[in-house]
Every structure is written in C-alpha cells, then in structure tokens.
Amino acid sequence: MRPLVAVDWGTSSLRVARIDGAGTVLEERASERGILTVPPGGFAQVLQEAAGDWLAAPQTLCLVSGMAGSRQGWLETPYCNCPAGFEEVAHALAWIEPGRIAVVPGLCFEFLGTPDALRGEEVQVFGAMDLLGLAGGVFVLPGTHCKWVGAAEGRVQSFATFMSGEFYRVLRQHSILALTLPAEDGPLQEAAFLRGVRHAQQARSLLHSAFSARTLALFGRLPPQDLPSYLSGLVIGEELRSRALHGHQVVLIGAPELTARYALALGTLGCASRSLGSQATWRGHWALARSLQA
Amino acid sequence: MRPLVAVDWGTSSLRVARIDGAGTVLEERASERGILTVPPGGFAQVLQEAAGDWLAAPQTLCLVSGMAGSRQGWLETPYCNCPAGFEEVAHALAWIEPGRIAVVPGLCFEFLGTPDALRGEEVQVFGAMDLLGLAGGVFVLPGTHCKWVGAAEGRVQSFATFMSGEFYRVLRQHSILALTLPAEDGPLQEAAFLRGVRHAQQARSLLHSAFSARTLALFGRLPPQDLPSYLSGLVIGEELRSRALHGHQVVLIGAPELTARYALALGTLGCASRSLGSQATWRGHWALARSLQA
Fold first, then answer.
1. Which end of chain B is more exposed for a tag (fewer CB within 10 A), N or C?
2. How far is A107 from chain B, CA to nearest CA, in Å?
3. A252 close contact with B: CB closer than 8 A
4. Residue B264 exposed, middle or buried by CB count within 10 Å (0-12, 13-18, 19+)
5. pTM higher than 0.80
6. Does A28 touch chain B (CB under 8 A)?
7. Is the ipTM here above 0.85?
8. Which residues in chain A are closer than 8 Å to B170, comparing Cβ atoms?
9. Using one digit for the tens of pLDDT, what is the confidence trace for A202-254?
C-alpha cells in the first residue's frame, strides 16, 4: 500500500498524520488552522505548510476529511446518503489532484422529514470498527455537536446530531446561569455531575431541568463549585435520556476528558462503553485508503 | 375597601396601577426601572417617583409583587411553600410600612428533590382565577422563564419553570444557529412555526431538534425568513411535549404576542386555551387586598 497523509480538517483545527502502508502512524501534527482561518483559495498552501514534506514522498496518497468538504471549505463535496460504507464513500470522493489528493464526503441522513448531516465523523466510525473488529454498533462522538451513529454490516445506517457541547456553553456563558455559576468550570465534581445525569432521566426537558442549576444554588443546596459539573450532567443526561440504548455497548470516540465524562454517565445508567481517541481518526483514513487500493 | 396601588416590580421593568375599592383600574404607568436599575436603599425613592401622588391619597394600601421580594430587591421575602392561596400569601407578606406597604412573597415548590421558585406569577394566577371564576386549572405564563402553574381549591399546588424564552435567545444569538438565521426575527411565519411545534413532538430532545434549524437551511428546505419562527416552534413545542396536558383547558397569561403564539401551538396539538393580559396582574393584587380586608 502507498504511504498516506491523513488530514482531519475541522472548523477550528487542522490535524495531519503520516501513516505507512501497514497502517502505523509515524508522525502527527496539529495546528489552529481550521477552515475558518483559511482565505478562499488558500487551502492548498495551508496544507503545504502543514504537511508539504510528507506529501513530497513518492506515491503518497492524501485523504482530507471534515469541514474541508463543506461550503466554507476547500472543495464542497456533496453528502453521501446513508447507508454508507467504504464503497459508497470511495465512490463519492472529490479529487483535488486525481489519484493523489481527495476530500472525503460527509454523510446525510433523513428522519421524520428532517435531514441531518456530518463531516469527518464517518471516518472515525470506520476507524473504530476497523480497530475493534466490529461490523456495527452504536458510536458516540462527543463535542460541540455530538454525533450518535448507528452502524451495521460495515455501513453507517443512521445518525443524529446533539448540540450538547454548544448548549452547555451558551447556557453557561449567556443565560441567567452565567450569574449563578462560578467564572471557571474547575475540575469535574463527579457526585454533582452524576446527580445532574440522574435528574435528567426524570425531568422531561432540559428547558425545565436547566433551571434547577439556579434554584439549587438559590436555596443553598449545591455549592457554587459543583454547579458547572451539575449542569454538564443535566445536558449529557438529557442526551442519554432521549436515546433508546437497547442494551448496546456504546463505543465512545473523542478527546479523553469528554469520553470519560460520557462513560461515567453511561455507567451510572447501567450502560457499558469503550473509548477511543485520535487513533480512530487515523485508522479510518488508512482503512479507507486500503479499500481504494484493494 | 381601601384604594390600592398595585406594583409589579420585575427584573427589568416597573409597572404600577391605581385601583379603586371596587377593583376598577383607574390608571396604569410603566417604566424601565426594574430592580436591576435600583441602587441598594433606593427602592422607596423609585416607588415615590413612580406612584408618590397615588400613595399620598388617604387610606391607600400598596402591594408590591415580583422580583422586588428577591435578594437583589427591596426586601428579601421568604418564599411561601405550595399549596399556597390568599391565606398563606397574606400570612407571609413582608410589611415595609406596617398596614400600608407590603411585599408579596414568591412561591417555592419541590419536586424530584429539586426546588423551583417564582415571584410575581402567583399574583397573576390568583387574578386569573378571580377574573374567570375558577378555583383551579393549568395556567401558563410565557416569557424568558415560562411558568406552568397547577392550581386547585383556590391554591397554587405545583409549578415548573421552563427557560424557553431564554433558550430561544441564547440559541438564536450565541450558537451556530446565529450564523444560519437572518439578523432580524421578522414577523411570525405561522406554517414554519407550526412545523417546528409538530417536529418537537416527535423529536425527543431540543438538543437534537434544534440542529434541524441548521440542516433544513443547509439543504435549502426552509427559506431563511422562516427559520426564526421554526426555531421558536421547536422550543415552544418541546415545552408542550414535556407537559402532560390531560385535556385541561389551559389559561395563558402574558403579553398578547406571546400568548397568541402559545395558543397557536396548543391549538395544533388539540388543546384549547384562553388568554389574559395585564388585567390578571392587577386583578390579582386587588383580590389579595380584598382578602386582607375580609
């Protein structure tokens, strides 16, 4: 197999990895050059700065996933409909330099007459399946916009976006809770976090439960330093409440501090989980490259 | 009955009314002198400016409801536990000038180990019951923090706060939806609003459904000018989804543009409603004054 430069190009960050033909990650780099920082027409140059030395090696293939395929990105790449596996995604690659540099399409999925979309997480789910030897499962990718992805037979069958990270941020910074919570989040207070997770299972909407972060403080029932963790538990707990987990083992993919929080919340609700980090991203790029050369 | 000066003193506004012994509102005034604009110790002076001429009339009674009874207000007044009617509230009045000027306490209610609180809405609910000749019912007071109040036997039995107005604002101004929605809300687009209300009945959390305001725009399925109404429908629809309405007729109390929106949403879900405006506030003050003098 050819050497691979894997590029995970998000809204606010650019991460690149050099991977050999056997799938070993030889080197990784990260920068703040997310797509929002790149002027129109400037993407090739920014990639050159980030990984030009790697791209110069003979026979190198480069796969770019994430928001680089969006309207504000390098090359708008139409979403691939679900179900989607290697075959469908490979067919829909958008080649910037034929046979050399391609943008990986995102996926779209329609449910209840409403479309949903993702870009980049499909590669992470492919990587997780490859790493864990799974053909399917429930994959959760926490973050600003947390993705819940259902896969079977090696294909993403469905997914749903939860604006959980963003709800936490806007409530914490811009709602009345900004007056109640301390200025800094501080370390996770596990008991307060789990209290929020459990309360969310009984409350029927975050619109209501979020107010309890204020009243518990008002009545002196939760100390200020516990409130950010409690609110985080309410938000993540609401997300878990709304999903029918059906006894699946969930695979969490993301930054360790986030997957640990979800694992804790899932555990208290009796749901097992495994966690993967950036290795899922790089393995997904590599497995996709492998399928192109099969 | 003595003449009454009714004062509804909220966070961001001050409203006063002069009411005769028969309950007729003779005059109303409103200003921006909400409690957040009043320096410590300055409340008597601000009330004097707003209604000093009325207060000078012999035998006048003055009842102050709302956030003036909060920690940041004129005189912190402990919350009255539910169930609470005229008797309980009258007993818990905080007199600033004995027999002449009193602050009406707010209410608290505990559910699932979590306290909830309101200040001022209790007077509006009392007024609505008095105006409509009801001893109970479901009362909804839309706003930044929408209150759902259950009453029976002339007493508030339970209530719940929904941060609906605030969620709409923070999502609209501070989340990724700020990039998707047009700068101004524009007039209500009824079809888009009701589409949001209906979608919320099937979606199981606003964390997920809110993202559809973005994807429907992204896929060109909803024109930009419809998006604010759609998002408003998602938020209000989520609130209605989480309540068990049990075929009750709901009484809406608030500003006409808000109660009209809730009436529309309730109607599309097969739920009847009646709407009241500021007359409920003044009638509540008067009915409370009447009970004090009975």
1. C
2. 12
3. no
4. middle
5. yes
6. no
7. yes
8. 170-171, 174-175
9. 998 999 999 999 999 999 999 999 999 999 999 999 999 988 676 678 999 99
